[in-house]
Amino acid sequence: MKKNLLGVKVALLMANGFSEQDMTTAQKALIEAGANVRIISPENGLVNGWDGSGWGHHFAVDAQLSTALGADYMMLVVPGGQRSIDKLNLTGHTKRFVSSFMTAGKPVVFMDDALHLLILTDNIKGRTVAGPAQMGDVVMQAGGLWDDSGLYVDGNMMTGAVTDENRRDFVSRIMDHFASQMEAEQAA
Fold first, then answer.
1. DSSP 3-state assignment of 73?
2. Which residues lie across from 40 on neighbouring strands?
3. In b/e form, how buried is each residue of 149-167, taking b as 16+ CB within 10 angstroms?
4. Which of 164, 28, 26, 49 is nearest to 107 (CA)?
5. Residue of 94, 85, 101, 116 lying closest to 156 (CA atoms)
6. What is the rounded distance in angstroms from the CA atom of residue 106 to the CA atom of residue 103?
7. Which of 31, 54, 103, 136 has the most CB within a 10 Å radius?
Protein backbone atom coordinates (compact mmCIF):
# COMPACT_ATOMS: atom_id res chain seq x y z
CA MET A 1 0.00 0.00 0.00
CA LYS A 2 1.16 3.51 -0.81
CA LYS A 3 2.19 5.47 2.30
CA ASN A 4 0.90 8.82 1.01
CA LEU A 5 0.14 10.09 4.55
CA LEU A 6 3.50 9.14 6.04
CA GLY A 7 3.96 11.02 9.30
CA VAL A 8 0.81 13.13 8.93
CA LYS A 9 -0.87 13.67 12.32
CA VAL A 10 -4.58 12.87 12.13
CA ALA A 11 -6.99 13.51 15.01
CA LEU A 12 -9.90 11.15 15.64
CA LEU A 13 -12.41 13.11 17.74
CA MET A 14 -14.81 10.98 19.76
CA ALA A 15 -16.50 10.36 23.10
CA ASN A 16 -18.05 7.26 24.66
CA GLY A 17 -20.59 5.75 22.29
CA PHE A 18 -18.79 6.49 19.01
CA SER A 19 -19.42 4.10 16.12
CA GLU A 20 -16.69 1.55 16.65
CA GLN A 21 -16.99 0.24 13.08
CA ASP A 22 -16.59 3.74 11.61
CA MET A 23 -13.59 4.47 13.79
CA THR A 24 -11.69 1.20 13.42
CA THR A 25 -12.18 1.05 9.64
CA ALA A 26 -10.89 4.63 9.24
CA GLN A 27 -8.11 4.16 11.79
CA LYS A 28 -6.80 1.03 10.06
CA ALA A 29 -6.75 2.68 6.62
CA LEU A 30 -5.02 5.79 7.99
CA ILE A 31 -2.34 3.76 9.77
CA GLU A 32 -1.76 1.66 6.64
CA ALA A 33 -1.21 4.92 4.72
CA GLY A 34 1.45 5.93 7.26
CA ALA A 35 -0.57 8.47 9.25
CA ASN A 36 0.15 9.17 12.90
CA VAL A 37 -3.39 8.68 14.25
CA ARG A 38 -4.30 10.15 17.64
CA ILE A 39 -7.55 9.75 19.60
CA ILE A 40 -8.84 13.02 21.05
CA SER A 41 -11.64 12.74 23.61
CA PRO A 42 -13.24 14.40 26.63
CA GLU A 43 -12.99 10.97 28.32
CA ASN A 44 -10.19 10.22 30.79
CA GLY A 45 -7.82 7.41 29.84
CA LEU A 46 -10.13 5.23 27.75
CA VAL A 47 -13.01 5.86 25.37
CA ASN A 48 -15.65 3.19 24.80
CA GLY A 49 -17.10 2.37 21.39
CA TRP A 50 -20.63 1.33 20.48
CA ASP A 51 -20.72 -1.74 18.28
CA GLY A 52 -24.17 -1.79 16.70
CA SER A 53 -26.37 -2.89 19.58
CA GLY A 54 -24.11 -2.71 22.64
CA TRP A 55 -20.93 -1.37 24.13
CA GLY A 56 -17.82 -2.37 22.25
CA HIS A 57 -14.13 -2.08 22.97
CA HIS A 58 -12.16 0.51 24.91
CA PHE A 59 -9.48 2.55 23.17
CA ALA A 60 -6.69 4.58 24.78
CA VAL A 61 -7.15 8.35 24.63
CA ASP A 62 -4.02 10.07 23.33
CA ALA A 63 -5.02 13.64 24.22
CA GLN A 64 -7.72 15.26 26.32
CA LEU A 65 -10.07 17.43 24.29
CA SER A 66 -9.78 20.17 26.92
CA THR A 67 -6.06 20.62 26.17
CA ALA A 68 -5.84 19.43 22.53
CA LEU A 69 -5.05 22.02 19.88
CA GLY A 70 -6.14 21.72 16.26
CA ALA A 71 -2.85 23.36 15.27
CA ASP A 72 -1.06 20.16 16.34
CA TYR A 73 -2.88 18.05 13.71
CA MET A 74 -3.08 18.14 9.91
CA MET A 75 -6.45 16.39 9.52
CA LEU A 76 -9.58 15.55 11.51
CA VAL A 77 -11.95 12.56 11.34
CA VAL A 78 -15.11 12.43 13.45
CA PRO A 79 -16.75 8.98 13.49
CA GLY A 80 -20.51 8.73 13.82
CA GLY A 81 -22.38 7.63 16.92
CA GLN A 82 -25.19 9.63 18.49
CA ARG A 83 -24.03 8.99 22.07
CA SER A 84 -20.58 10.35 21.19
CA ILE A 85 -22.00 13.40 19.42
CA ASP A 86 -24.30 14.17 22.36
CA LYS A 87 -21.37 14.02 24.78
CA LEU A 88 -19.10 16.11 22.53
CA ASN A 89 -21.86 18.72 22.40
CA LEU A 90 -21.63 19.17 26.18
CA THR A 91 -18.25 20.87 26.10
CA GLY A 92 -17.19 24.16 24.52
CA HIS A 93 -13.84 22.55 23.73
CA THR A 94 -15.51 20.67 20.88
CA LYS A 95 -16.45 23.92 19.14
CA ARG A 96 -12.95 25.31 19.67
CA PHE A 97 -11.24 22.16 18.35
CA VAL A 98 -13.49 21.58 15.31
CA SER A 99 -13.56 25.29 14.42
CA SER A 100 -9.76 25.46 14.42
CA PHE A 101 -9.68 22.90 11.57
CA MET A 102 -12.50 24.61 9.69
CA THR A 103 -10.95 28.08 10.01
CA ALA A 104 -7.52 26.84 8.92
CA GLY A 105 -8.99 25.00 5.92
CA LYS A 106 -7.52 21.68 7.05
CA PRO A 107 -9.04 18.44 5.72
CA VAL A 108 -11.96 17.23 7.86
CA VAL A 109 -14.36 14.29 7.61
CA PHE A 110 -17.66 13.97 9.44
CA MET A 111 -18.92 10.40 9.19
CA ASP A 112 -22.69 9.81 9.23
CA ASP A 113 -24.45 11.52 12.17
CA ALA A 114 -21.20 13.26 13.21
CA LEU A 115 -22.57 15.84 10.76
CA HIS A 116 -24.48 17.17 13.80
CA LEU A 117 -21.20 18.62 15.09
CA LEU A 118 -21.04 21.00 12.13
CA ILE A 119 -24.38 22.39 13.24
CA LEU A 120 -23.57 22.38 16.96
CA THR A 121 -20.25 24.18 16.36
CA ASP A 122 -21.77 26.78 13.98
CA ASN A 123 -19.69 25.60 11.02
CA ILE A 124 -22.53 24.57 8.68
CA LYS A 125 -23.64 27.92 7.24
CA GLY A 126 -23.10 28.07 3.50
CA ARG A 127 -21.48 24.61 3.35
CA THR A 128 -22.84 21.78 1.21
CA VAL A 129 -23.07 18.49 3.09
CA ALA A 130 -24.43 14.96 2.77
CA GLY A 131 -25.37 12.51 5.48
CA PRO A 132 -28.23 10.46 6.87
CA ALA A 133 -31.41 11.37 4.95
CA GLN A 134 -33.29 12.43 8.09
CA MET A 135 -30.77 15.26 8.63
CA GLY A 136 -31.58 17.16 5.42
CA ASP A 137 -34.18 19.49 6.94
CA VAL A 138 -32.08 20.15 10.06
CA VAL A 139 -29.07 21.08 7.91
CA MET A 140 -31.09 23.49 5.78
CA GLN A 141 -32.68 25.11 8.85
CA ALA A 142 -29.17 25.70 10.22
CA GLY A 143 -28.09 27.46 7.01
CA GLY A 144 -26.35 24.58 5.27
CA LEU A 145 -26.99 23.21 1.79
CA TRP A 146 -28.11 19.58 1.42
CA ASP A 147 -26.87 17.08 -1.15
CA ASP A 148 -28.75 13.79 -1.63
CA SER A 149 -25.81 11.88 -3.11
CA GLY A 150 -24.86 10.25 0.19
CA LEU A 151 -21.29 11.61 0.10
CA TYR A 152 -20.16 15.14 -0.60
CA VAL A 153 -16.83 16.97 -0.65
CA ASP A 154 -17.05 20.73 -0.08
CA GLY A 155 -13.52 22.09 -0.36
CA ASN A 156 -11.55 20.65 2.54
CA MET A 157 -14.60 18.96 4.13
CA MET A 158 -16.10 15.55 3.41
CA THR A 159 -19.45 14.42 4.81
CA GLY A 160 -21.75 11.52 4.13
CA ALA A 161 -23.98 8.71 5.28
CA VAL A 162 -22.13 5.59 6.42
CA THR A 163 -23.72 2.15 6.44
CA ASP A 164 -22.39 -1.36 6.86
CA GLU A 165 -22.69 -1.75 3.08
CA ASN A 166 -20.75 1.38 2.09
CA ARG A 167 -18.32 1.82 5.03
CA ARG A 168 -15.23 0.44 3.23
CA ASP A 169 -15.95 2.53 0.12
CA PHE A 170 -16.54 5.60 2.31
CA VAL A 171 -13.20 5.12 4.05
CA SER A 172 -11.52 4.60 0.68
CA ARG A 173 -12.95 7.97 -0.35
CA ILE A 174 -11.59 9.50 2.89
CA MET A 175 -8.15 8.29 1.91
CA ASP A 176 -8.52 9.76 -1.59
CA HIS A 177 -9.76 13.04 -0.07
CA PHE A 178 -6.83 13.29 2.33
CA ALA A 179 -4.30 12.34 -0.37
CA SER A 180 -5.64 15.00 -2.75
CA GLN A 181 -5.58 17.60 0.04
CA MET A 182 -1.94 16.72 0.79
CA GLU A 183 -1.01 16.95 -2.91
CA ALA A 184 -2.71 20.34 -3.19
CA GLU A 185 -0.87 21.61 -0.11
CA GLN A 186 2.49 20.36 -1.39
CA ALA A 187 1.88 21.97 -4.80
CA ALA A 188 1.11 25.36 -3.19
1. coil
2. 13, 63
3. ebbbbeebbbbbbbeeeeb
4. 26
5. 101
6. 8
7. 136
Separation CA 27–CA 62 (nearest Å): 14
Cβ-Cβ contacts under 8 Å for 51 (sequence gap 6 or more): 20, 21, 57
- 131: closest CA among 155, 174, 85, 163? 163
Return d(Cα 83, Cα 121) in angstroms, integer. Answer: 17
Please compute the mean of the pLDDT values over residues 2-16 and round it to a whole number.
92
DSSP classification of residue 74:
S
Beta-bridge partners for 75: 10
Which bin fits 36, alpha (ψ -120 to 50), beta or left (φ > 0)?
beta
Model confidence at 72: pLDDT above 90: yes
Q: Class of the 9-115+167-182 domain?
A: alpha beta
Burial of 125 (0-12, 13-18, 19+ CB in 10 A): exposed
Torsion on CA atoms 147, 149, 150, 153, rounded to nearest 10: -70
Nearest to 110 by CA among 146, 152, 178, 159: 159
Q: At CB < 8 A and 24+ separation, what contacts does 5-8 make?
A: 5/30, 5/33, 5/34, 5/35, 5/175, 5/178, 5/179, 5/182, 6/33, 6/34, 6/35, 7/34, 7/35, 7/36, 8/34, 8/35, 8/36, 8/74, 8/75, 8/178, 8/182
| Predicted pLDDT of residue 185 | 76
